[in-house]
Amino acid sequence: xxxxxxxxxxxxxxxxxxxxxxxxxxxxxxxxxxxxxxxxxxxxxxxxxxxxxxxxxxxxxxxxxxxxxxxxxxxxxxxxxxxxxxxxxxxxxxxxxxxxxxxxxxxxxxxxxxxxxxxxxxxxxxxxxxxxxxxxxxxxxxxxxxxxxxxxxxxxxxxxxxxxxxxxxxxxxxxxxxxxxxxxxxxxxxxxxxxxxxxxxxxxxxxxxxxxxxxxxxxxxxxxxxxxxxxxxxxxxxxxxxxxxxxxxxxxxxxxxxxxxxxxxxxxxxxxxxxxxxxxxxxxxxxxxxxxxxxxxxxxxxxxxxxxxxxxxxxxxxxxxxxxxxxxxxxxxxxxxxxxxxxxxxxxxxxxxx
Length: 354
Known about the structure:
Layout: H1 5-65, H2 70-97, H3 106-195, H4 208-216, H5 257-261, H6 270-274, H7 278-299, H8 311-326, H9 329-336, H10 342-353
Helix pairs in contact: 1-2, 2-3
């Protein structure tokens, strides 16, 4: 039997190529098997080792999100971990055994896996409804409490405003009373200083313009008019005020008894003096005579232990006589006496000069 060498060579080459292909396929298959085995071993190890960690994670999740108790959370987590482990093992067994008949039961496995989750969700939903109802009641109570507090706050605010107004009024009254008392004290001290007789024998001088300037606190200079010294008034004649064009009127209140008792001048304008009736002139003259007598009685020096004249008394009498000589009594009477009454003022003048 003769064999063509060419055909033989071709057949040998084909066999060699097929052998190489078979060797490559076998190597790839073996490598894939080894890889699958390694992966399965890792999955088994991970499933067995991660059971406790998975259960701890589920317990923490149930406690934090679903507010489960410790015992209930541990029980539910154990059920979930057991269902997950069974599902994983069945899938791995089906893959390793290449059991195609087990694939239709995959839906049952999934249902068993999700059964604990469905139970937990239903329980949580019922509890959530109860929590919502309780929360709604609590919210209503809180809203009522907030409304009550808001109303009480508004009432307290009104009371505080009213109390503040009362305190302000009381404070203003207190301040006004304090200022009035202070003014009265200052006024009494000033009058005491004006009308008190000095210990060295001098006499106090009454000046209405200066008194009004001190009361008002005015800084305008007042020009004092001629005044008669205390104890030497000219027969009750009215003292002329300072020759100011518009002298301020002297205020007389109930708190000025000393000023009323020691009053020695009455300010009158020329127009008022011109319109004074004769009867009013006579009444004014009588009042002036009575005032002169009162002032003379008040300012008369008290009698000493002996009736003899001492040197200080003589010096004081000489000083008072010199003051009377310098004072122009006619000008005082003419300035404060209305027209037609100069004849009536003459007798007091003579009495004063005597």
